[in-house]
Amino acid sequence: MISRKELEGKVALVTGASSGIGKAICNRLAEEGINLGMAARRKSVLDSLSDKLEKKHGNRCLPLPTDVTKDEEVNDMVKKTVDKFGKLDILVNNAGVIRYGDIEDFSTEDYKAMMSTNCDGMFYSTRASLPHLRKTEGNLIFIGSFDANHPRSFNPIYSATKWWTKAFAHSIESIVGKEGVAVTLINPSEVRTDIEDEEGMPYREKFDPEEVLDPEELAEVVLFTIKQENSTTISEINIFRRDKMSEFF
Ligand SMILES: NC(=O)c1ccc[n+]([C@@H]2O[C@H](COP(=O)([O-])OP(=O)(O)OC[C@H]3O[C@@H](n4cnc5c(N)ncnc54)[C@H](OP(=O)(O)O)[C@@H]3O)[C@@H](O)[C@H]2O)c1
Question: What predicted TM-score, i.e. pTM, was given to this entire model?
């Protein structure tokens, strides 16, 4: 494992940094002295988070108001990160949304919201970041889902976006692994964030602490992947609440 000293001064770009898993990842990486490009749509949230992290941890943070469904904004997000910090060591492809509904009545708008954020957004961010990650032999991390490996009768489109993420992540791994880039797919089951259930209740209210995963546990997993020595890739991690598989078997 590489040391805290070696992590200090690295540069990470995190999408979906304004909330939940992305916010926790930013906080944990800042604690290690990693400089951050923080991307999401809500500028005021990013501004205040980035201020807080800089004051608390002394790292440097760049708020990057970005809609990941727009390729030009994503290109700009990567360019601004590299312009400010001079390099990119880590991309965390995390921004994602979920929508619910019966498949026969599922709206095209909700379908497109999931496909454009969960798939297109990850493609645009990866495409723009890879030239920089090749230079640094860095880390490319995807937040997938439990659903990336299991069909879901109640949410086929969301599930399909996460199967897409899995196929994309491992295919990219097969291209850039030999060039020294480590590609990791992390598949959590339920995490206590702002993501909502079918009734619109955020998971952080629906579940008690320790009933399901906390975003900070995901942040630890991300840190574990980037602390590996240069020749090693943590290719895929499934992190579930302990009774998750009991729902199925
Ligand atoms: N929570 C879970 O149970 C769970 C389980 C498995 C996988 N995941 C995955 O984990 C990832 C993070 O979700 P979360 O649970 O942390 O949810 P969350 O708290 O709702 O956070 C979602 C983040 O994505 C950002 N985002 C959404 N659409 C965006 C867009 N078009 N452009 C840029 N940013 C956008 C949001 O910021 P803005 O609104 O400011 O843009 C927010 O920062 C997602 O990929 C999700 O599918 C979550």
Answer: 0.98
